[in-house]
Amino acid sequence: MSDEEFNEREDKISNRMSRGRETKANSLEDSIKHFRTAYEHAKKMGRGTPSKKSVLLNIAVIFGFILSIISVSAVLL
Question: Which residue windows are transmembrane per the record (predicted)?
Fold first, then answer.
């Protein structure tokens, strides 16, 4: 998640919470705090959604590996 996406989501949380619950400011602060904490943990772990290109490349490599094993097995039998 980029910083821009993070800011957008943070703004959405702020807007939704303030529109629906003006009397519960603590709830807004807690929501933003938890969102920031989760974002920081995800950033530290370096986990993100892999790109479609890398997923397709991995599938192609695995498929090629399986295909080569099958073809070698067929030749040996």
Answer: 55-76
